[in-house]
Specification:
sigma factor, 2 domains, RNA polymerase subunit sigma-70, mainly alpha, RNA_pol_sigma_r3/r4-like, transcription, Rna Polymerase Sigma Factor, Chain: A, sigma factor activity
């Protein structure tokens, strides 16, 4: 009997490609909780987070013959989890997808293209909301978040106090959080 715990992630994936259930179980145990914590942080809902992670692993197993992981396994699993969460936000509710009922499995290229498109749409939505902030607030927020300036640097550049800078940033975050709703939590990932 092989000792799967000593296998690297890549070795486990190669074993899984041969439909090795014990290797799949080891990968599942290795990453389930980490992915669950990540999903729960983004969704703020334990059941939805569990569903998303379960769906990621179900998809992985159902795509075994065509699986191509060009990055590290952890990165692949995190990206798959993030895509599932974006799908949930897109639909506004939890939807379980049974890949076995689809006529053709989704290729990795289609998945990556879809992910990139969603990321661009989300970035555009966030930029739209930032543009709607009052001018002074937007200026302070962009100097802080886009130019990575400290409060002191912003205060010096705009000839305002550090406290005013801090207040403007806090207000901007509150406004964005209110306008973007659950999408706000994805803001930190872009």
């Amino acid at each position: 009997m092989k000792i799967y715990r000593s296998c690297t992630d890549s070795e486990l994936i190669n074993l899984i490609k041969g439909y090795d259930q014990a290797a799949y179980k080891e990968l599942y145990q290795r990453y389930w909780y980490l992915l669950y914590k990540h999903a729960r942080k983004m969704l703020h809902n334990e059941e939805e987070a569990k569903d998303v992670v379960q769906d990621v692993f179900t998809t992985l197993w159902s795509r075994v013959p065509a699986i191509e992981i060009n990055t590290d396994v952890a990165g692949y699993l995190y990206a798959a989890t993030r895509n599932k969460i974006l799908n949930l936000f897109d639909r506004g509710r939890v939807q379980q997808v049974h890949l076995s009922t689809l006529p053709h499995p989704i290729s990795a290229a289609e998945s990556k293209t879809d992910y990139l498109l969603r990321e661009r749409e989300l970035a555009a939505l966030i930029e739209q909301e930032i543009a709607r902030l009052p001018q002074k607030m937007r200026c302070v927020f962009e100097l802080s978040r886009k130019d990575n300036l400290s409060h002191k640097e912003i205060a010096a550049q705009l000839d305002i106090s550090d406290k005013t800078v801090k207040k403007q940033i806090v207000k901007a975050i509150k406004v964005l959080r209110l306008r973007l709703g659950p999408l706000y939590h994805l803001f930190s990932f872009l």
